[in-house]
Design goal:
Layout: E1 2-5, E2 14-16, H1 20-32, H2 41-47, H3 57-63, H4 84-92, H5 96-104, H6 117-121, H7 123-142, H8 146-172, E3 180-183, E4 186-189, E5 196-199, E6 205-209, E7 218-220, E8 228-231, H9 249-256, H10 258-266, E9 271-272, H11 273-280, H12 284-296, E10 300-305, E11 308-313, H13 315-321
Parallel strand pairs: 1-5, 2-6, 6-8
Antiparallel strand pairs: 1-4, 3-4, 7-8, 9-11, 10-11
């Protein structure tokens, strides 16, 4: 469990921001195949050929962690509208000791991945190389779709800002993510493998929507950074529909309806009814009706987890979607 404790001043320092750097960082494991939601398949088909030959080993080792992404790799944006060049400059200016401290958190059984050892031993020399790789990767894979990502992130920020105005933090976190809940003077994030407590102490809270974070909730709680939550914006189900139709979901949509097919493509990991409603821009009542039909057809299972009921597609649904053979992984050079 991660607790972020708020004082009176913190509630006046809640802000939102969008970050092209966050989108870049969280797209890397999606593209490389270590985390591959079906919903992003159209982007994968577009981006994979464009990064062929690019050495992503160090960037992937930094971004792929199932539990931790190093803090220096995606520092909180200073302004509402994050500027990619400024964000890269902030990474390049990271002191060597800060880089080493962040990398220490990636150790497994005391060992750092071999590909990251040069960065640990000489961050002043190696960090500019990481930044250069990020710049090339951005131009090839993310910048061409940034207007689409930005539009979705901006729409979500507008929606959350209205929630904050009309219902306060409790309203904002009602459907943000099942792992986050607001309790009087604190934000509690249910991360079973983490145990941390951060006194915001006037730093407030930053909320950053990120398309490629889907469906995870990421937390930056270490000082001196502002406490930050990176979450999935609303409407992801429609993000790529104008760019490309998913080859597996399209015929399934003809059979059972577009909304039910879209629900199945999103349920590779457990999600709540309110999350699905937000991602697909449907009412919670409509989602509940579709889920009831899918359960009766043995395509979806539902289970209670704390205050949430989480839904996930079954192996039969996997076969219908053809996800067992979906996608083409980006080939990375083997580690030495």
């Amino acid at each position: 469990m991660i607790d972020i404790i708020f004082g009176p001043d913190d509630l006046t320092r809640i802000r939102f921001a969008r970050s092209p750097l966050e989108e870049l960082v969280h797209s890397v494991p999606v593209l490389a195949g270590t985390r591959r939601p079906l919903v992003h398949r159209p982007w994968l088909e577009f981006a994979a050929p464009r990064v062929t030959g690019l050495d992503l080993r160090v960037l992937l080792a930094l971004a792929r962690g199932p539990r931790i992404v190093p803090d220096f790799l995606a520092p909180p944006p200073e302004a509402l509208t994050g500027n990619f060049g400024h964000e890269l400059a902030a990474i390049a200016a990271t002191p060597g000791e800060v880089v080493r401290t962040s990398l220490d958190e990636l150790r497994t059984d005391g060992e750092l991945p071999a590909v990251l050892r040069p960065l640990y031993e000489d961050p002043d020399h190696e960090l500019p190389r990481v930044v250069d790789t990020m710049a090339v990767y951005w131009r090839a894979a993310v910048e061409p779709v940034w207007p689409r990502l930005r539009a979705l992130d901006d729409a979500d920020i507008a929606h959350r800002a209205q929630q904050l105005t009309t219902g306060g933090l409790a309203k904002v976190f009602d459907d943000l993510h099942p792992e986050a809940r607001y309790e009087v003077d604190r934000l509690r994030i249910d991360k079973p493998l983490h145990s941390a407590r951060r006194e915001a102490a006037g730093a407030g809270l930053l909320l950053v929507p990120c398309v490629f974070a889907w469906p995870r909730l990421l937390v930056l709680h270490n000082e001196p950074y502002q406490p930050t939550l990176t979450y999935s914006p609303r409407g992801i189900g429609r993000l790529w529909t104008e760019q490309s139709s998913d080859a597996s979901a399209e015929p399934l949509g003809d059979l059972m309806g577009r909304s039910r097919a879209a629900l199945l493509t999103h349920l590779d990991l457990p999600l709540s009814t309110t999350q699905l409603a937000a991602y697909l821009d449907l009412s919670a009542a409509a989602v509940s009706q579709h889920l009831a039909v899918l359960r009766r057809c043995r395509l979806v299972t539902s289970r209670r987890s704390g205050r949430w009921v989480l839904h996930q597609r079954t192996s039969l649904a996997e076969e219908l979607l053809g996800t067992g053979v979906a996608g083409t992984a980006v080939t990375a050079s083997p580690e030495p």
